[in-house]
User: Fold Exopolygalacturonase from Zizania palustris.
Amino acid sequence: MVNGSTEALAAVVAAALMVGVAVATTASSTPSKPEGSLDIAQLGARGDGKTDSTKFIMQAWKYACAATGTQKIVIPPGNYLTGALALSGPCTSDIIIRLDGNLLGTGDLSAYKTNWIEVMRVNNFAINGHGTIDGQGPLVWKNNECHKSYNCKILPNSLVLDYVTNATIRGVTLLNSKFFHMNIFQSKNVLVDKVTITAPGNSPNTDGIHIGDSTNVTIAATSIATGDDCISIGPGSKTIRIHGVRCGPGHGISVGSLGRYKDEKDVEDVAVTDCSLHGTTNGLRIKSYEDSKSQLKATKFVYDGITMDNVSYPIIIDQKYCPNNICSKSGNSKVTVTDIVFKNIVGTSATPEAVTLNCANNLPCEGIQMHNVNVKYNGVHNTTMAVCRNVHGKTSGVAKELACL
Assistant:
């Protein structure tokens, strides 16, 4: 971190941590006693990894949601097999799920309408503990056709927050999701803290955390190793803070893809600080479709204090993204990329092209800054290089091979 930004970051992280306080000290009335136990084992769940525990978790949720004050659902030690868990509100209580055991998502895809664990329209919610949310992806990854077609049937995401306000996910492990491990949509004031997300590097579409149309999301002190983006930030995301994250294997920390659909909203105010990427196929990436359908902005991003370790393409802005030739290569982008700062970024690149700033002919990137950037190709028979097209900005303290602005 450079002087002047450390205090600001500390304030942001402290504010995010207050999300956890919100679910522990409720402003609701004096807690009422739920109609039944909130310990799923007491309700009849068996932690043998074979018996379906879905109805017992849903019963505990029903009891907790209808009560007042702060209610704690307990998943005790054991392995609890479940199908889809629709944890819906609104609730009259604040709810904490204490995960000491392991939840296993059944491999029977008929058990899911869409997602596995979906928390919807709930305020003041938390999951904490040292247990595991195991999607058992290896049982169904063979059914994933999304690498062949964008019109594929989507497999269930593991943990989804939809229309949630004030949420904390802390301490738990998400393992081998069928699709995304965590999806945060239309939510605000969300903290992901000290979480571990793990899947093989060749597992399909197992993004670590995806954020879309959400505000004030903080991901801190989290380790992510997946087969796709460690973190992906979609349209409509604002005030996103990513701090102290270890990423790899995976596809890096990405913004986008942007502009694929109509009526997408701006991505604004993103800070990625004090993170490390190890052996990822991309590093810090901003990507938008070449024939974007929406007019939107990606603006006010800061990447500060990043270490690259054998990362294939460490720094990328790509306004000409067109996977599988699904778009026309007209070059008429509608996505504005402006005010992006890369600073204090060091380490090694697995390819000679350590910096790629590939912006649109009709809508050049503006206000791009690189300060104290020194990423070197770690191979032989080639030299470190940067490729810059249609980009305007400035550099300082940058390795000469990378100073293409």
Notes: DSSP finds three helices and 31 strands in the chain. Confidence is low (pLDDT under 50) at residues 1-8, 10-15, 17-28.
